[in-house]
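Bit of a strange request maybe. I'm writing a small parser for structure token strings and I need a real example to test against, not something I typed by hand. Could someone generate the tokens for this chain?
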Amino acid sequence: SELKNLKDSINNTDLERFIMDPLNLGKYEELFEKMSHSTLLTLMVSDIDLTEFAEDGVISMMETGPLGFLYLDEIGGTYATVYTSEEKISNVHTPLNKYSQIVNFSQMTNFILNDDMDGIIINPSCENIMITRETLMQYSGLLEKTCNDTRLNTAIMHMFLMEEA
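Reply from user aminoacidic:
Good idea to test on real output. This should exercise your parser:
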């Protein structure tokens, strides 16, 4: 319920303003600082409708095991995706069922680096802010210090039904 309340109260206006300003391109320290004060989402997808597994809009995979998988953008490489809102997620077109998940950005960075992925895209199908693997490696120490929110350690075990657009 704490994660659901956090998701329902997302306000990433400051981060969105920052990434929409082309003058901020390449200002990674500032970007990661803004991200450390933001609640970011990732897109989880499933071949099947998981609505029946939801309780109060939350799908807990603690007992069911993995029910969805991380949506990846595979244009020019394999990129994990993060979003500043469910509205931004709704711009992604996929035939699969979509669910949001709060992400600990530091944990996601470690996942990307350990799985030899090419990087992260913030708000694909919208702003398309690409952070390459090399940049994530360069700033991994800073990300561990600033973006590791221990309150989100169990977030990977919960998905949320998407609000109807």
